[in-house]
């Protein structure tokens, strides 16, 4: 499952990098994906929206086993 998540994040990453940010997979625990937002994303007021409406939505679409995405 970790490989699938990394592949999906690779598709999302260019959009984040275009705005000066990035996302890094920290781990997966029982369907909960833990990520760290980096760069401009780390301090951005829109980071929660990016995390839930962007990253989480895409991961859930591509990988049904994903229950939630949380920033750590």
Describe this structure as you would to a colleague.
This protein has 72 residues and is of the alpha+beta class. It has one domain: Fe-S cluster assembly (FSCA) (GMP Synthetase, Chain A, domain 3), CATH 3.30.300. It contains 3 helices and 3 strands. Strands 1-2-3 form a 3-stranded mixed beta sheet. The model has no long low-confidence stretch (mean pLDDT 94).
Keywords:
alpha+beta, GMP Synthetase, Chain A, domain 3
What best-fitting shape do the alpha-carbon axes yield? globular
Structural class determined from secondary elements? alpha+beta
Supply Rg.
Answer: 11 Å
Strand arrangement, major sheet: 1-2-3
Architecture, according to CATH? 2-Layer Sandwich
Class, according to the CATH hierarchy? Alpha Beta
Head-to-tail CA distance between termini: 19 Å
Low-confidence stretches: none
Portion of residues in beta strands equals 25-35%
Number of domains: 1
For the largest beta-sheet, the strand count, sense and barrel status come to: 3 strands, mixed
CATH evolutionary superfamily: Fe-S cluster assembly (FSCA)
User: Helix and strand string, N-terminal first?
Assistant: HEEHHE
CATH topology label = GMP Synthetase, Chain A, domain 3
Helix proportion: 40-55%
Number of helices: 3
The tally of strands reads 3
The residue-averaged pLDDT reads 94
Describe the protein's topology.
Elements: H1 2-18, E1 21-29, E2 32-39, H2 40-43, H3 47-62, E3 68-71
Parallel strand pairs: 2-3
Antiparallel strand pairs: 1-2
Helix pairs in contact: 1-3
């Amino acid at each position: 499952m970790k490989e699938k998540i990394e592949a999906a994040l690779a598709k999302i990453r260019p959009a984040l990098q275009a705005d000066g940010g990035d996302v890094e997979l920290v781990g997966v625990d029982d369907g909960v994906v833990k990520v760290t937002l980096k760069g401009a994303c780390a301090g951005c007021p829109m980071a929660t929206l990016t995390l839930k409406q962007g990253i989480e939505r895409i991961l859930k679409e591509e990988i049904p086993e994903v229950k939630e995405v949380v920033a750590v």
